[in-house]
Amino acid sequence: MLKKYSGNPILRPDSVQFPWANLKVYNSGMIVDNGVYHMFFRAVGSEDFISRIGHGKSIDGIHFEIDPKPVLSPKESFETHGCEDPRITKIGKIYYMTYTAFEGRTGRAAISSSQDFKNWGKRRLLLSDWHGSRWNTKSGRPVQLPNFNTSTWDQEKDSNWSKAAAIFSEKVNGKYMLLFGDDSIWSAMSDDLIDWKINPEPIISPREGFFDQGYVEMGPPPFKTEEGWLIFYHGINRLDNQRVYCIAAAMLDLVDPTKILWRSSNPLIEPKEIYEISGMVDITDKRAGGKLPKAVFCSGAIETKTKPNHSYNLYYSGADTVICLASGTLEEIKWK
């Protein structure tokens, strides 16, 4: 397992200064710019229990100064019930934030952009025509997992379900590329960051007999290494109220990122600490029977060193309630 910071959690809900973040702070996107760490995190307050996206700055990557107001709050029709799970990618001089827009029924990948981290432009959906996930009523994809009640699930989910979009930091074969999905992980290509052509064949899918046999979900934007594109993702072991969220990794081919070079056989981070197994874990479906007991989740990471060995800080959520830190080298990650 990666080394967890001894001072975890590094960010907790604040009922004194931030009423919009007094219940939950979690699922943060991360980027470093001119030596300053920028954290964009999902926050939930008790007044309306709607997700907003907050922003914090840090010099050391541990102690963050939080902006008094959210940088993104729901305003569009497709996000009336929340702006969730941000991921940040810089391309040129522009910062692109992908996030999940939730209107009370369907989670959809959305995007906004900024040049200063404060003023965010027009928000729009990324993959509005996507029906490939098994969470979609129009997908028609067979579900092969044991004890999975498709009829119940389809009644509770709508079509166009598309979450966890993460954009590559540079073009691949002359095109922009992103990975997305919280069922399997798919890829999409674009000439302009607006219209995306989705590859219907997933890159990473659940594996029977492994820690990620329930479903998988894309993590932070990919990291380019000499070996390939390194991605972090989440693996869930089962689809009931005993499910466990773990964090894993995979390496994708540099030229053709739809090809997997290797993939974690065991989790990099498992929920074991009290702050990872006790909290206000999101209830994602009625069959869960209440709060989900164990969850670690990462949508933001920083590459801290490239030579002689790539090293990473993973900013991950504990029990959907706090933000934590873990670190490791590429060699340590590969041996998992």
Care to give the gist of this entry?
This protein is mostly beta strands and 336 residues long.
Count of discrete alpha- or pi-helical segments spanning 4 or more residues: 3
> Can you tell me the residue ranges where pLDDT is under 50 for at least 5 consecutive residues?
139-157, 284-289
H-E order: EEEEEEEEEHEEEEEEEEEHEEEH
Main sheet overview: 9 strands, mixed
Strand-helix topology:
Blueprint: E1 3-4, E2 24-33, E3 36-44, E4 51-58, E5 65-66, E6 82-91, E7 94-102, E8 107-114, E9 124-125, H1 150-156, E10 166-167, E11 176-180, E12 185-190, E13 196-204, E14 215-218, E15 223-224, E16 229-236, E17 244-252, E18 260-263, H2 274-277, E19 294-305, E20 311-318, E21 322-329, H3 330-334
Parallel strand pairs: 17-19
Antiparallel strand pairs: 1-21, 2-3, 3-4, 4-5, 6-7, 7-8, 8-9, 10-11, 11-12, 12-13, 14-16, 15-16, 16-17, 17-18, 19-20, 20-21
Textual characterization of the structure:
This protein is mainly β and 336 residues long. The protein has one domain: Glycosyl hydrolase domain, family 43 (Tachylectin-2, Chain A). Helices cover 5% and strands 41% of the residues. The protein has three helices and 21 strands. Strands 1, 14, 15, 16, 17, 18, 19, 20 and 21 form a nine-stranded mixed sheet that branches. Strand 16 and strand 17 form a beta hairpin. The longest helix is centred in the middle third of the chain and has 7 residues. The radius of gyration is 18 Å and the shape is globular.
